[in-house]
């Protein structure tokens, strides 16, 4: 073991991953080296998740595992959402934690490590914002992105000002704070220059981007600037082999909020072809009474009209959403309305979660009255219905050609994603032969499964056919 090594475990969502990678950048710049084996590290870091009960327990379990094997010459630092909200409790549950960082103090990681290495510290060193809404100032030259292959998550804002009754994020992260457009563009240029082909824009609520900066239709404005300054040209290469990585080819939008998908945003998505015809818009439920109890937008007519408007303006639009089942007070009638809605709208992708009781949220007085077995049964019914819908939609692509971003290769098969597939959460496209990882290549779809597609290369010269 060398004296300057760190092992970092990132838990939770892609937004957490961005914070983890930002901490790693700072440590690497300070002379540290990342290692996969915790036994070979002298600094152990867990970027925790505190969103729902199972995620909180996973964070505690990982911290306990590292604490249980920690040597005297190692430091253990807990960071992220769980420590922001329950810092002292986490330290009490996991003896051996040396430092605690809040969600918007990721930029203090080097300072914390240096202070802890000065000498004995009988109590954990805390670096928490004095208020949940404290703004985390961008660290100079630190890209607020997480890169995986040719794709990168780029964080455009942090925190949330929505009043959702079930959600602890505003308690953890504070209100929404947008990053300056010029900072985002600067980082997008760096990502483009490093070979990134896909930008995935993330925030707790991307459609709220710019509100605190006084920018009307901030997300649409940002998308236009990205397309003008970092996006790849639309014209294909002369040899017909697809784009050549001259800029960002794909820009994907995640975490849109119902009611804030504006006409201008739809117009930008329709006109700017680098903006993928893909939208992730968590709806959470489909019955007005359930949504009212959730303190979510309950105008289901708006959803129908907006999705209809989007599908008319944006050909082949892929829509992902998420739902919560077993929310307090959800009757069988309300749940059936959700099933009917899923069957009617026919989303491309659906994620479903069982309600998790969170103390301190505005839903706390409602308790958690629906039995676990009922939640599980409702979860299974939604997912079974969606699986059949997903299969039917996937089958409609057989015989069509899709551009596929190649991300891997295994046993004669190239593995990638189409515009319909966000990293990590959606499906894959399995293509015969070997293509260069990071290329975007045209693929003729030959087969469909519930979540994934299979295909063959349109331009065989791009592949080594096995």
Describe the 3D structure.
This protein has 466 residues and is α/β, with parallel strands linked by helices. It folds into three domains: 5-127, Rossmann fold (3-Layer(aba) Sandwich); 145-395, tm_1862 like domain (pyruvate-formate lyase- activating enzyme); 401-462, OB fold (Dihydrolipoamide Acetyltransferase, E2P) (Beta Barrel). The protein has helices spanning 14-29, 53-69, 81-93, 109-116, 169-173, 181-193, 218-229, 263-271, 288-294, 300-313, 332-345, 372-395, and strands at 5-10, 33-34, 43-48, 75-80, 99-101, 125-127, 145-148, 151-155, 157-158, 177-178, 198-202, 250-253, 275-280, 318-325, 349-354, 401-410, 413-417, 429-432, 440-448, 453-457. The protein has a seven-stranded mixed beta sheet with strand order 7-8-11-12-13-14-15. The chain has a six-stranded parallel beta sheet with strand order 2-1-3-4-5-6, with helices on both faces. Helix 7 (218-229) links the parallel strand 11 and strand 12 (250-253).
């Amino acid at each position: 073991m060398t004296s300057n090594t760190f092992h970092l475990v990132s838990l939770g969502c892609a937004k957490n991953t961005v914070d983890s990678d930002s901490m790693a950048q700072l440590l690497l710049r300070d002379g540290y080296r990342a290692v996969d084996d915790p036994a070979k590290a002298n600094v152990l870091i867990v970027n925790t998740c505190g969103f729902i009960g199972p995620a909180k327990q996973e964070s505690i379990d990982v911290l306990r595992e590292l604490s249980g094997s920690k040597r005297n010459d190692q430091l253990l630092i807990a960071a992220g959402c769980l420590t922001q909200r329950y810092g002292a409790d986490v330290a009490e549950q996991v003896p051996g934690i040396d430092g605690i960082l809040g969600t918007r103090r990721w930029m203090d990681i080097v300072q914390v490590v240096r202070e802890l290495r000065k000498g004995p510290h009988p109590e954990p060193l805390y670096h928490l914002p004095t208020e949940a809404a404290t703004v985390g100032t961008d660290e100079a030259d630190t890209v607020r992105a997480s890169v995986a292959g040719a794709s990168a998550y780029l964080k455009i804002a942090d925190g949330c000002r929505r009043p959702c009754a079930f959600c602890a994020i505003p308690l953890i992260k504070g209100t929404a704070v947008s990053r300056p457009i010029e900072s985002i563009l600067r980082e997008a240029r760096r990502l483009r220059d490093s070979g990134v082909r896909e930008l995935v824009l993330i925030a707790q609520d991307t459609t709220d981007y710019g509100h605190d900066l006084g920018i009307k239709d901030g997300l649409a404005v940002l998308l236009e600037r990205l397309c003008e300054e970092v996006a790849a040209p639309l014209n294909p290469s002369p040899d017909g082999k697809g784009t050549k990585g001259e800029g960002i080819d794909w820009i994907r939008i995640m975490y849109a909020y119902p009611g804030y998908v504006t006409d201008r945003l739809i117009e930008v998505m329709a006109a700017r072809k680098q903006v993928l015809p893909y939208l992730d818009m968590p709806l959470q439920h489909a019955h007005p009474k359930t949504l009212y109890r959730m303190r979510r937008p309950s105008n289901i007519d708006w959803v129908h009209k907006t999705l209809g408007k989007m599908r008319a303006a944006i050909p082949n639009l892929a829509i992902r959403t998420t739902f919560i089942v077993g929310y307090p007070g959800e009757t069988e009638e309300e749940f059936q309305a959700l099933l009917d809605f899923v069957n009617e709208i026919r989303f491309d992708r659906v994620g479903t979660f069982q309600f998790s009781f969170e103390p301190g949220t505005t839903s706390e007085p409602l308790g958690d009255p629906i039995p676990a077995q009922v939640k599980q049964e409702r979860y299974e019914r939604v997912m079974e219905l969606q699986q059949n819908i997903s299969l039917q939609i996937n089958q409609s692509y057989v015989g069509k050609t899709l551009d596929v971003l190649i991300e891997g290769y295994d046993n004669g098969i190239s593995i990638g994603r189409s515009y319909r597939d966000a990293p990590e959460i959606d499906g894959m496209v399995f293509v015969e032969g070997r293509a260069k990882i990071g290329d975007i290549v045209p693929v003729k779809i030959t087969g469909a499964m519930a979540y994934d597609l299979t295909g063959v290369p349109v331009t065989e010269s791009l592949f080594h056919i096995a």
